[in-house]
Design a protein that fits this description.
With 334 residues, the protein is α/β, with parallel strands linked by helices. It has one domain: TIM Barrel. It has ten helices and 16 strands. An eight-stranded parallel β-sheet has the order 3-6-7-10-11-12-13-16. The chain has a two-stranded antiparallel ribbon with strand order 1-2. Helix 5 links the parallel strand 11 and strand 12. Helix 7 packs antiparallel against helix 10.
Length: 334
Protein backbone atom coordinates (compact mmCIF):
# COMPACT_ATOMS: atom_id res chain seq x y z
CA UNK A 1 0.00 0.00 0.00
CA UNK A 2 1.35 3.42 -0.90
CA UNK A 3 2.17 6.04 1.73
CA UNK A 4 -0.45 8.76 1.28
CA UNK A 5 1.91 11.39 2.65
CA UNK A 6 3.94 11.12 -0.56
CA UNK A 7 0.95 11.07 -2.89
CA UNK A 8 0.93 13.23 -5.98
CA UNK A 9 -2.69 14.25 -6.62
CA UNK A 10 -3.67 14.78 -10.25
CA UNK A 11 -6.62 16.77 -11.52
CA UNK A 12 -9.31 16.55 -14.17
CA UNK A 13 -11.89 18.95 -15.56
CA UNK A 14 -15.43 18.91 -14.21
CA UNK A 15 -16.84 18.40 -17.68
CA UNK A 16 -17.25 21.60 -19.67
CA UNK A 17 -17.62 23.79 -16.55
CA UNK A 18 -14.01 24.95 -16.49
CA UNK A 19 -13.75 23.86 -12.85
CA UNK A 20 -10.64 21.82 -12.04
CA UNK A 21 -11.12 19.05 -9.49
CA UNK A 22 -8.98 16.30 -8.04
CA UNK A 23 -9.31 13.14 -10.14
CA UNK A 24 -10.76 11.46 -7.04
CA UNK A 25 -13.31 13.03 -4.75
CA UNK A 26 -14.58 12.04 -1.33
CA UNK A 27 -18.08 10.56 -1.26
CA UNK A 28 -20.04 11.78 1.76
CA UNK A 29 -23.01 9.37 1.90
CA UNK A 30 -21.62 7.17 4.67
CA UNK A 31 -20.70 10.10 6.89
CA UNK A 32 -24.37 11.09 7.11
CA UNK A 33 -24.99 8.20 9.50
CA UNK A 34 -28.10 6.01 9.70
CA UNK A 35 -31.39 6.98 8.05
CA UNK A 36 -34.33 5.01 6.72
CA UNK A 37 -37.12 4.65 4.18
CA UNK A 38 -39.80 2.97 6.22
CA UNK A 39 -38.02 -0.07 7.69
CA UNK A 40 -35.33 -0.12 4.98
CA UNK A 41 -31.91 1.18 5.98
CA UNK A 42 -30.47 3.64 3.44
CA UNK A 43 -27.46 4.85 5.42
CA UNK A 44 -24.15 3.13 6.18
CA UNK A 45 -24.50 2.52 9.90
CA UNK A 46 -23.14 4.51 12.82
CA UNK A 47 -20.57 7.23 12.25
CA UNK A 48 -18.18 9.35 14.33
CA UNK A 49 -18.51 12.99 13.21
CA UNK A 50 -15.15 13.98 14.64
CA UNK A 51 -13.41 11.19 12.70
CA UNK A 52 -15.12 12.05 9.41
CA UNK A 53 -14.25 15.72 9.95
CA UNK A 54 -10.62 14.70 10.34
CA UNK A 55 -11.01 12.67 7.14
CA UNK A 56 -12.23 15.75 5.25
CA UNK A 57 -9.33 17.81 6.57
CA UNK A 58 -6.89 15.03 5.66
CA UNK A 59 -8.25 14.92 2.12
CA UNK A 60 -7.72 18.67 1.74
CA UNK A 61 -4.22 18.36 3.16
CA UNK A 62 -3.37 15.72 0.53
CA UNK A 63 -4.78 17.82 -2.32
CA UNK A 64 -8.32 16.45 -2.73
CA UNK A 65 -10.73 19.31 -3.38
CA UNK A 66 -13.93 17.55 -4.53
CA UNK A 67 -16.64 16.51 -2.04
CA UNK A 68 -19.89 14.85 -3.12
CA UNK A 69 -22.87 14.77 -0.77
CA UNK A 70 -26.69 14.99 -0.93
CA UNK A 71 -29.33 16.70 1.18
CA UNK A 72 -30.94 13.34 2.03
CA UNK A 73 -27.75 11.68 3.35
CA UNK A 74 -28.42 11.32 7.06
CA UNK A 75 -31.45 13.57 6.35
CA UNK A 76 -29.25 16.68 6.26
CA UNK A 77 -26.51 15.49 8.58
CA UNK A 78 -23.87 14.87 5.90
CA UNK A 79 -24.25 18.41 4.53
CA UNK A 80 -24.10 19.86 8.04
CA UNK A 81 -20.90 18.01 8.94
CA UNK A 82 -19.29 18.91 5.61
CA UNK A 83 -20.25 22.56 5.96
CA UNK A 84 -18.80 22.74 9.46
CA UNK A 85 -15.61 20.93 8.39
CA UNK A 86 -15.08 23.35 5.50
CA UNK A 87 -15.60 26.47 7.58
CA UNK A 88 -12.66 28.76 6.78
CA UNK A 89 -11.64 26.39 3.97
CA UNK A 90 -14.48 26.91 1.48
CA UNK A 91 -12.16 28.38 -1.16
CA UNK A 92 -10.18 25.11 -1.19
CA UNK A 93 -13.23 22.92 -1.89
CA UNK A 94 -15.51 22.09 -4.81
CA UNK A 95 -18.85 20.97 -3.36
CA UNK A 96 -21.34 18.75 -5.17
CA UNK A 97 -24.70 18.01 -3.59
CA UNK A 98 -28.05 16.63 -4.73
CA UNK A 99 -31.77 17.29 -4.49
CA UNK A 100 -35.08 15.55 -5.21
CA UNK A 101 -35.62 13.37 -2.15
CA UNK A 102 -37.86 14.69 0.60
CA UNK A 103 -37.12 13.75 4.21
CA UNK A 104 -37.76 14.38 7.89
CA UNK A 105 -34.57 15.13 9.87
CA UNK A 106 -36.34 14.51 13.20
CA UNK A 107 -37.40 10.92 12.45
CA UNK A 108 -34.42 10.29 10.08
CA UNK A 109 -36.90 9.14 7.44
CA UNK A 110 -36.73 9.57 3.67
CA UNK A 111 -40.29 10.40 2.68
CA UNK A 112 -40.70 10.74 -1.07
CA UNK A 113 -39.60 12.67 -4.14
CA UNK A 114 -40.14 16.19 -5.45
CA UNK A 115 -38.39 17.94 -8.33
CA UNK A 116 -40.89 20.71 -8.99
CA UNK A 117 -39.36 24.15 -9.65
CA UNK A 118 -40.58 25.52 -6.32
CA UNK A 119 -39.17 22.58 -4.39
CA UNK A 120 -35.82 22.75 -6.19
CA UNK A 121 -35.40 26.40 -5.17
CA UNK A 122 -36.42 25.57 -1.60
CA UNK A 123 -34.06 22.57 -1.44
CA UNK A 124 -31.19 24.61 -2.84
CA UNK A 125 -31.60 27.30 -0.18
CA UNK A 126 -31.78 24.64 2.55
CA UNK A 127 -28.58 22.97 1.28
CA UNK A 128 -26.79 26.33 1.14
CA UNK A 129 -27.71 26.90 4.77
CA UNK A 130 -26.58 23.45 5.95
CA UNK A 131 -23.35 23.72 3.95
CA UNK A 132 -22.70 27.24 5.31
CA UNK A 133 -21.95 28.60 1.85
CA UNK A 134 -23.52 31.00 -0.64
CA UNK A 135 -22.96 28.83 -3.72
CA UNK A 136 -22.92 25.15 -4.72
CA UNK A 137 -20.38 24.12 -7.36
CA UNK A 138 -22.34 21.17 -8.78
CA UNK A 139 -26.06 20.63 -8.08
CA UNK A 140 -27.38 17.22 -9.11
CA UNK A 141 -30.85 15.75 -9.60
CA UNK A 142 -30.91 12.71 -7.29
CA UNK A 143 -33.89 10.91 -8.89
CA UNK A 144 -32.34 8.50 -11.39
CA UNK A 145 -35.60 7.54 -13.09
CA UNK A 146 -37.32 10.93 -13.03
CA UNK A 147 -39.93 11.41 -15.77
CA UNK A 148 -38.19 12.46 -18.99
CA UNK A 149 -41.21 14.57 -19.97
CA UNK A 150 -40.68 16.73 -16.89
CA UNK A 151 -36.88 16.74 -16.90
CA UNK A 152 -36.52 19.74 -19.24
CA UNK A 153 -38.37 21.85 -16.67
CA UNK A 154 -35.89 20.71 -14.01
CA UNK A 155 -33.00 21.59 -16.32
CA UNK A 156 -34.37 25.09 -16.96
CA UNK A 157 -34.86 25.67 -13.23
CA UNK A 158 -31.21 24.73 -12.70
CA UNK A 159 -30.17 27.17 -15.44
CA UNK A 160 -32.07 29.87 -13.51
CA UNK A 161 -30.17 28.95 -10.34
CA UNK A 162 -26.90 29.36 -12.28
CA UNK A 163 -27.99 32.84 -13.39
CA UNK A 164 -28.90 33.67 -9.78
CA UNK A 165 -25.38 32.72 -8.66
CA UNK A 166 -26.56 29.98 -6.30
CA UNK A 167 -24.98 27.13 -8.32
CA UNK A 168 -22.10 27.04 -10.81
CA UNK A 169 -23.05 23.90 -12.76
CA UNK A 170 -25.45 20.98 -12.59
CA UNK A 171 -25.85 17.32 -13.47
CA UNK A 172 -28.03 14.24 -13.04
CA UNK A 173 -27.34 11.18 -10.93
CA UNK A 174 -28.75 8.55 -13.26
CA UNK A 175 -27.70 5.36 -14.99
CA UNK A 176 -29.88 6.08 -18.04
CA UNK A 177 -28.03 7.49 -21.08
CA UNK A 178 -31.24 9.05 -22.52
CA UNK A 179 -31.73 11.10 -19.36
CA UNK A 180 -28.10 12.19 -19.36
CA UNK A 181 -28.44 13.33 -23.00
CA UNK A 182 -31.47 15.48 -22.21
CA UNK A 183 -29.67 17.29 -19.40
CA UNK A 184 -26.56 17.66 -21.58
CA UNK A 185 -28.54 20.00 -23.84
CA UNK A 186 -28.36 22.59 -21.06
CA UNK A 187 -25.53 25.11 -21.27
CA UNK A 188 -24.31 24.61 -17.71
CA UNK A 189 -24.73 20.84 -17.46
CA UNK A 190 -21.28 19.54 -16.50
CA UNK A 191 -21.64 15.99 -15.21
CA UNK A 192 -23.53 12.78 -14.89
CA UNK A 193 -23.17 10.69 -11.75
CA UNK A 194 -23.23 7.02 -12.69
CA UNK A 195 -22.73 3.68 -10.97
CA UNK A 196 -19.44 2.46 -12.42
CA UNK A 197 -16.71 0.13 -11.22
CA UNK A 198 -14.59 -2.75 -12.50
CA UNK A 199 -17.39 -5.24 -11.74
CA UNK A 200 -20.17 -3.05 -13.18
CA UNK A 201 -19.08 -1.30 -16.37
CA UNK A 202 -21.01 1.62 -17.92
CA UNK A 203 -20.01 1.64 -21.60
CA UNK A 204 -23.15 3.43 -22.86
CA UNK A 205 -22.78 6.24 -20.35
CA UNK A 206 -19.11 6.53 -21.20
CA UNK A 207 -20.11 7.25 -24.80
CA UNK A 208 -22.59 9.93 -23.72
CA UNK A 209 -20.01 11.64 -21.51
CA UNK A 210 -17.49 11.66 -24.36
CA UNK A 211 -20.05 13.01 -26.84
CA UNK A 212 -21.09 15.93 -24.62
CA UNK A 213 -17.86 16.46 -22.65
CA UNK A 214 -19.46 15.61 -19.30
CA UNK A 215 -17.55 14.49 -16.24
CA UNK A 216 -18.50 10.95 -15.25
CA UNK A 217 -18.68 11.02 -11.47
CA UNK A 218 -18.42 7.41 -10.36
CA UNK A 219 -20.61 6.42 -7.44
CA UNK A 220 -19.96 2.91 -6.21
CA UNK A 221 -16.34 2.93 -7.45
CA UNK A 222 -15.44 0.28 -4.87
CA UNK A 223 -18.66 -1.71 -5.44
CA UNK A 224 -20.09 -0.56 -2.10
CA UNK A 225 -17.05 -1.91 -0.27
CA UNK A 226 -16.60 -5.25 -2.05
CA UNK A 227 -13.54 -3.93 -3.87
CA UNK A 228 -11.80 -3.09 -0.60
CA UNK A 229 -11.39 -6.84 -0.04
CA UNK A 230 -12.55 -6.70 3.56
CA UNK A 231 -15.75 -8.69 2.99
CA UNK A 232 -15.93 -12.46 2.51
CA UNK A 233 -18.74 -14.99 2.09
CA UNK A 234 -18.96 -15.12 5.90
CA UNK A 235 -19.37 -11.35 6.40
CA UNK A 236 -22.68 -10.02 7.74
CA UNK A 237 -23.58 -6.31 7.60
CA UNK A 238 -25.59 -4.66 10.43
CA UNK A 239 -29.29 -3.93 10.09
CA UNK A 240 -28.83 -0.14 10.00
CA UNK A 241 -26.53 -0.42 6.98
CA UNK A 242 -27.91 -0.07 3.42
CA UNK A 243 -26.11 -3.36 2.62
CA UNK A 244 -27.60 -5.22 5.61
CA UNK A 245 -30.54 -7.61 5.79
CA UNK A 246 -32.98 -4.67 5.65
CA UNK A 247 -31.48 -3.41 2.37
CA UNK A 248 -33.67 -1.88 -0.37
CA UNK A 249 -34.69 -3.92 -3.40
CA UNK A 250 -32.12 -2.29 -5.70
CA UNK A 251 -29.20 -3.62 -3.66
CA UNK A 252 -27.51 -6.30 -5.80
CA UNK A 253 -23.91 -6.34 -4.55
CA UNK A 254 -25.08 -7.62 -1.15
CA UNK A 255 -28.01 -9.95 -0.47
CA UNK A 256 -29.57 -10.62 2.95
CA UNK A 257 -26.71 -8.72 4.56
CA UNK A 258 -23.97 -10.79 2.88
CA UNK A 259 -21.80 -10.20 -0.19
CA UNK A 260 -23.35 -11.52 -3.39
CA UNK A 261 -21.29 -14.64 -4.28
CA UNK A 262 -21.48 -13.82 -8.01
CA UNK A 263 -19.54 -10.60 -7.45
CA UNK A 264 -17.15 -12.19 -4.97
CA UNK A 265 -16.19 -14.70 -7.66
CA UNK A 266 -15.55 -11.92 -10.18
CA UNK A 267 -13.49 -10.04 -7.61
CA UNK A 268 -11.23 -13.03 -7.03
CA UNK A 269 -10.76 -13.39 -10.80
CA UNK A 270 -9.30 -9.86 -11.12
CA UNK A 271 -7.66 -9.48 -7.70
CA UNK A 272 -4.13 -10.29 -8.88
CA UNK A 273 -4.25 -7.75 -11.71
CA UNK A 274 -5.70 -4.99 -9.53
CA UNK A 275 -3.13 -5.48 -6.78
CA UNK A 276 -0.12 -5.56 -9.10
CA UNK A 277 2.72 -3.11 -8.54
CA UNK A 278 2.08 -2.70 -4.83
CA UNK A 279 -1.46 -1.37 -5.04
CA UNK A 280 -4.09 -2.35 -2.50
CA UNK A 281 -7.25 -3.86 -3.98
CA UNK A 282 -9.15 -0.57 -3.54
CA UNK A 283 -6.34 1.37 -5.16
CA UNK A 284 -6.41 -1.00 -8.14
CA UNK A 285 -10.16 -0.53 -8.50
CA UNK A 286 -9.71 3.25 -8.63
CA UNK A 287 -6.85 2.85 -11.12
CA UNK A 288 -9.19 0.84 -13.38
CA UNK A 289 -11.67 3.74 -13.48
CA UNK A 290 -8.99 6.31 -14.32
CA UNK A 291 -7.79 4.10 -17.15
CA UNK A 292 -11.33 3.52 -18.44
CA UNK A 293 -11.81 7.17 -19.45
CA UNK A 294 -10.16 10.59 -18.97
CA UNK A 295 -13.57 11.86 -17.83
CA UNK A 296 -14.00 9.57 -14.80
CA UNK A 297 -14.00 10.99 -11.26
CA UNK A 298 -14.41 8.21 -8.66
CA UNK A 299 -15.86 9.28 -5.31
CA UNK A 300 -15.19 6.47 -2.81
CA UNK A 301 -16.98 6.89 0.49
CA UNK A 302 -15.21 7.06 3.82
CA UNK A 303 -15.78 6.97 7.56
CA UNK A 304 -12.17 7.12 8.72
CA UNK A 305 -8.92 8.96 8.07
CA UNK A 306 -7.30 5.61 7.21
CA UNK A 307 -9.76 5.11 4.34
CA UNK A 308 -9.01 8.59 3.01
CA UNK A 309 -5.27 7.90 3.16
CA UNK A 310 -5.60 4.61 1.27
CA UNK A 311 -7.93 5.91 -1.43
CA UNK A 312 -5.98 9.12 -2.08
CA UNK A 313 -2.82 7.00 -2.10
CA UNK A 314 -4.08 5.38 -5.31
CA UNK A 315 -3.16 8.57 -7.17
CA UNK A 316 0.55 7.89 -6.70
CA UNK A 317 0.20 4.82 -8.93
CA UNK A 318 -2.05 6.44 -11.54
CA UNK A 319 -4.24 4.51 -14.02
CA UNK A 320 -3.81 0.86 -14.99
CA UNK A 321 -2.00 0.17 -18.25
CA UNK A 322 -3.79 -0.67 -21.49
CA UNK A 323 -2.44 -4.21 -21.19
CA UNK A 324 -3.85 -4.61 -17.69
CA UNK A 325 -7.23 -3.30 -18.86
CA UNK A 326 -7.27 -5.87 -21.66
CA UNK A 327 -6.41 -8.64 -19.20
CA UNK A 328 -9.36 -7.68 -17.00
CA UNK A 329 -11.76 -7.61 -19.97
CA UNK A 330 -10.52 -11.05 -20.94
CA UNK A 331 -10.91 -12.50 -17.44
CA UNK A 332 -14.42 -11.05 -17.04
CA UNK A 333 -15.33 -12.06 -20.63
CA UNK A 334 -16.50 -8.70 -21.91
Amino acid sequence: MTDATSTTVFYRALGRSGIQISAMGLGCWAMGGPFWRGDKAVGWGDVDDSETTRGIHRGLELGVNFFDTADVYGTGHSEEVLGEALKGRRDKAVIATKFGNTFDPVTKQGLGADASPAYIRQACDASLQRLQTDYIDLYQLHLGGYDLDKAAEVRETLEELVKAGKIRAYGWSTDDPARARLFAEGEHCAAVQVNWNVLEDAAEMKAVCEQFNLAAINRGPLAMGLLTGKYSANSTLPGNDVRGENSPAWMQLFKDGKPNPVYLKQLEAVREILTSGGRSLAQGALAWLWARSPLTIPIPGFKTVAQVNENVGAMKFGPLTADQMQQIDSVLVR
